[in-house]
Amino acid sequence: MQLNFIGNSETDAHRLRTLFGRVDKTFLTQGCFSLSQLKRGVDLTYNTEAIFFGWGCRGLTPEELSAAFPCLKAAFYLGGDTGPYEPAFTAIGVPLFSCLTENSRSTAEFAFAQIILANKGYYRATRSYIPWMWPLNFRYAKAKANLAYGNFGATVGIVGFGNVGRLVITQLRRFDLALLVHDPFVEDIEIERAGATAATLQCLVESSDVVSLHLPIRETASPLLDHANIAKLKKQSTLINTSRGHHISEDAIANIASQRPDLTFVLDVTRREPLPFWSPLWRRKNVFLSPHIAGVSDQELPRLVIYLSEIYERWSAELTAKL
């Protein structure tokens, strides 16, 4: 079977092929093409039945795909959400496989870790453990940490019950925690089967010791968590966002964080990345920022490569069996 790796540049395509070649050396014999090369002709891609592409690759139109790969039977995307690419492949009747489930694991692991730390009072302790209060700083910071509920009997609210949200719930079920979920697009019975309780957004915000957002990438007209919702956060609670910055009003966080030092905000994502240096979020001691690291790291990328390679092998075997 002929397959090709494609990328914005030939270097990108070669890098992608190298990643897969570490899993199976037969991938190293396949072709690599940049998007600009695909437009010059189909002599080398005419018989291509499968293509691989990764994060950041510009999407092709149905016409471009049909012209470059007239014999295409499947596409494999080394990434999570296929939203930007799906319409083009659907239009030409070609299935698009991705690493959505495996990609979600990394984000879920990160969010799970932040939730456990937040329940232990880690964030309020670290910002209170300062050298110029020595020797009182130790007891003072520890007292701040003890304001948290710990991981026995606390309430955790999960906003969004997609792949990441479900994985987080699965990991949290090992602890004696009350789990609330808000997702108007999922039946209550499905949430209950996962070991959680369905709740309205207002109830979840007002009741949870930790609120963690796991919403779709797609941008909405207005943030789900606005000033009114954020202001209702439970005393001493923590808000974690590992989804996308546009789901929370950053202006509201900046204002409320200064008015309510009892709250903690853990933001791995912001509306603009990098966050502008003039943003007031940098100056809020109870706002903890990280540079969008919840997703797959370079060291974790092989996990996705192995996963997608296995999908390809199964698809290829099924296709061969039908011949």
Which spans of ≥5 residues are poorly predicted at pLDDT below 50?
Answer: none
Between the first and last Cα atoms, what is the distance in angstroms? 12 Å
- The run of helices and strands is EHEHEHEHEHHHEHEHEHEHEHEEH
What is the CATH architecture descriptor of the largest domain? 3-Layer(aba) Sandwich
Mean pLDDT: 94
Count of all domains: 2
Percentage of residues in DSSP E strands:
15-25%
The tally of helices reads: 13
* CATH topology description of the largest domain: Rossmann fold
Give the fraction of residues assigned to helices.
25-40%
Category from helices, strands and their pairing: alpha/beta
Over all CA atoms, what is the radius of gyration? 23 Å
Q: Report the top-level CATH class of the largest domain.
A: Alpha Beta
Quick one: overall form? elongated
What's the β-strand tally? 12
Largest sheet: 7 strands, parallel
Strand order of the largest sheet: 8-7-6-9-10-11-12
